[in-house]
Write a structure and sequence with these properties.
Structural class: alpha+beta
Strand content: 15-25%
Largest sheet: 5 strands, mixed
Number of strands: 15
Helix content: 25-40%
Number of helices: 9
Low-confidence stretches: 4-11
Order of helices and strands: EHEEEEEHHHHHEEEEEEHEHEEH
Radius of gyration: 23 Å
Amino acid sequence: MPNPPTYFSAWGNVPIDNDVRPFSMLNPEGSDTNRNNRRHHFISAVYMDGFADERGRVQVYRCEAPEDPHSMNPRAIGFERDYYSQKLPEGGQENHRFEDLWNTIETVWPETIRALAARRLSLAISFNVLGMQTIMRARVPATRDRHALMLEAKLRNECKIGEEIGTLPPEIERYAGQFDTVPVGINPHETLLAMQGEFKDIGNLCFRLGFEVLHNKTSTPFLTSDNPVCSYDPRQSIHARTPYEHSGDVELIFPVSARMLVRGSSKRGPVNVLSRHRDISDSRKVRQLNRTIAQFSYRLTIGQDRTSSDLIRAHAAQVPTITTDVRRLGKEIQIICRNVFGPRPTLSPYIDTPEKAARLEAKMAAASTKPDSASG
């Protein structure tokens, strides 16, 4: 009998484990070329199902109003219109390429979760869990916004240098003297392209970590969020923690359901695989893990119930983001980015049509005349 086809090169050589298929066996190309999927989830709805209550609903806490959670269906949250769409050179846009890729992992997620709950271990199970972990690190707004902030800092400083040496392009000379404040919208296509580097980085990190599955035996369910893959130096206290600090010891946690969480550690082996199941019966330990999950959330924190509301409120004002430090040597610039917990950034919208540009120009002109009007 011929082997089933695979679509991920060497990564596809993962054997089936009973009823758990490795996601690499599924073709990421959609069969219906006429689809026009425009509602793109950046938190997988099938992933969120693992945190739903008996009514199939989750408690959703928005970072700007954590005191006011809402009971919602997972399919009604965690999405944006055209979030993964790409403009085509010949016109129009492609709407489902990334969604198809996510779908290969999401399709096998329910069978993978059932296998984890049954305390099974296999290469296929590990492959699917680490695959979901990878896309839930790379596809989310926290990651894409971080890349947008880096690109914004680069563009602002290139323009400032151009102004100093007299090489500004004519179309942006009008913004001279305003490059610290003028809105800079980054083409979303650039942050989509950056996901490839994120896939590689999280894959490399997994080859430093050994993984285990923690089963929650307490009455407090695990939280999750729109940025559920949390990695840090476990030697740092939570109040002095730097997000994504991977230079020394590393711990990674990834909640996979209200009752299960994957934990990776640079002190465990073998690497890049789930190697054991363990129970947690101490509610204080569950609370500690939930505090970290709340700390890494970006726009939304999600719970099965409201037992961890105080933790969510305590961390709502700070999110994982970056600061940038610009160093210059003549015409060369070097931008040093540091991961920090700080206020969630507000990104400028990308201006891709003359109509949007005209509206922005009018808004900026109105703002610039207000002080004169007041003084007159």
